[in-house]
């Protein structure tokens, strides 16, 4: 029996404004977090340290997000290419600082609002549904410098005004919304998701979970607002997900990874999907000296604003044990762990585990019984343009086909999966490394780490492969 994807399955691709648009100061846009992040392999190290100063220093660093791939001026060309592949859905984010340049204004920037009107109209012209992330590592820089990012409760009000503005403006153009990108990654990298750099390692946990609490309230408000302003809307959460394997059958290691998985994979999901903090949070907070300031009405808001569906990114699994030596530690997408001897890794050290996606889908659906969308999955790799102009990225086709096949198995398992948007459907600036050379796309963009390049778009071999996948609704991999 052929295992099939459901009719109406939402095939597409995913991006983020800060990695794609460029035009960092055009159209009235204000600076945001991504605009002050340096490019290159030092980016992760700079972001990980305490006391990041949020200043631009062009004498020391490059800032590729300022130009990105210039989607701001080329969106019609890019959307036409997405349509040629047959996209049913395109995941993008709205840059908060295009709508409210500082984040705390009373009135929005009309030029920013009009830009997204034009993008959504172009998508609908090609029968592509927008899937919009409201906050994707794009906290306005003024909110970071003036208020301390999401540590400050005032951001809930600023976010509420922003959300009301875009829901009201785009109520007839956007049905699918996501609140905060990879919300559970915030404690590992608060700079990205919460818009602050920890003062010290001692304050990291307290400030991160307080900031998360503010985002939980803001997310729940957004869900409630979406249902009021856009009755047909579906508002989801967005998690970074990685199943956690014990290195061996030692019960000490099994218990350790169980607790790690609870905090990383399920705490945020439980709050956003079930509407309450999970049972294991109390002990974890106590042992890590976290005391949340939960104000009157917060828990009721969280309970009333549970999401309609769950979206998540999946790049790799995680293997871990309680005691590990430095040489055992592997690289990963914010999540750490140790090397898994059964898995190969990408050029950037991210382990490749297609079966882990099936495990993830079953874990999430088994826990929540809510519709799921895989909204990020892809292979960052070095691509070579051949003499004849072709880009033969068979390694990307292999990676994606194996993961799509495991999604098909999960659907056969009984999982309700409604969509798949491959990450970086067009080459863009890597969030983790600030590199152009870490390419994910079906579409090659002639832009390089040294700043050179024409920005010309080229179809890779995977472009035609994905077009066939969509045309056959996943039957022909």
From TrEMBL:
Transport in keyword set: no
Keywords: Glycosidase, Hydrolase
InterPro entries from the UniProt entry: GH, GH_1_N_CS, Glyco_hydro_1
Recorded superkingdom: Bacteria
Biological processes per GO annotation: carbohydrate catabolic process
Entries under Gene3D superfamilies matching the protein: Glycosidases (3.20.20.80)
Gene Ontology CC annotations of this record: cytosol
Record family assignment: Belongs to the glycosyl hydrolase 1 family.
Name of the protein this chain belongs to: 6-phospho-beta-glucosidase
Lineage: Bacteria, Bacillati, Bacillota, Bacilli, Bacillales
């Amino acid at each position: 029996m052929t295992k099939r994807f459901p009719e109406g399955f939402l095939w597409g691709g995913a991006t983020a404004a800060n990695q794609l648009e460029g035009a960092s100061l055009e159209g009235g846009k204000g600076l945001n977090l991504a605009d002050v992040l340096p490019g290159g392999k030092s980016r992760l190290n700079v972001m990980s340290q305490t006391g990041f100063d949020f200043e631009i220093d062009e004498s020391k660093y490059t800032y590729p997000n300022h130009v990105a791939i210039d989607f701001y001026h080329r969106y019609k060309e890019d959307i036409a290419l997405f349509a040629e592949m047959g996209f049913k859905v395109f995941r993008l984010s709205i840059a908060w600082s295009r709508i409210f340049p500082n984040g705390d204004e009373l009135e929005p920037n009309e030029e920013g609002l009009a830009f997204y009107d034009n993008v959504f109209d172009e998508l609908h012209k090609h029968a592509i549904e927008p899937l919009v992330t409201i906050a994707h590592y794009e906290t306005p820089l003024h909110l970071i410098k003036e208020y301390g990012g999401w540590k400050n409760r005032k951001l809930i009000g600023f976010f509420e005004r922003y959300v009301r503005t875009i829901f009201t403006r785009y109520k007839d153009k956007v049905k699918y919304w996501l609140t905060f990108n990879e919300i559970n990654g915030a404690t590992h990298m608060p700079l990205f998701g919460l818009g602050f750099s920890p003062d010290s390692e001692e304050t990291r946990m307290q400030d991160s979970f307080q900031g998360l609490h503010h985002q939980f309230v803001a997310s729940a408000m957004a869900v409630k607002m979406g249902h009021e302003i856009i009755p047909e809307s579906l508002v989801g959460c967005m998690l970074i997900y990685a199943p956690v394997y014990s290195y061996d059958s030692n019960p000490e290691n099994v218990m350790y990874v169980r607790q790690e998985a609870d905090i990383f994979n399920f705490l945020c999901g439980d709050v956003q999907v079930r509407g309450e903090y999970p049972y294991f949070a109390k002990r974890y907070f106590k042992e890590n000296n976290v005391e949340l300031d939960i104000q009157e009405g917060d828990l009721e808001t969280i309970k009333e604003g549970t999401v309609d569906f769950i979206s998540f990114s999946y790049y790799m699994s995680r293997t871990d044990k309680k005691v590990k030596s430095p040489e055992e530690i592997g690289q990963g997408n914010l999540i750490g762990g140790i090397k898994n001897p059964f898995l190969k890794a990408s050029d950037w050290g991210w382990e490749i585990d297609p079966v882990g996606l099936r495990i993830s889908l079953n874990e999430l659906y088994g826990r929540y019984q809510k519709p799921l969308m895989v909204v990020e999955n892809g292979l960052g790799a070095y691509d070579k343009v051949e003499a004849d102009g072709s880009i033969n990225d068979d390694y990307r086709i292999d990676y994606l086909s194996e993961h799509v096949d495991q999604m098909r198995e999960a659907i056969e398992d009984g999982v309700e999966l409604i969509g798949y948007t491959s990450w970086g459907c067009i080459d863009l600036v890597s969030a983790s490394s600030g590199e152009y050379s870490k390419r994910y796309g079906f579409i090659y963009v002639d832009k390089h780490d040294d700043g050179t390049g024409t920005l010309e778009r080229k179809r890779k071999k995977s472009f035609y492969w994905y077009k066939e996948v969509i045309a056959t609704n996943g039957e022909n991999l």
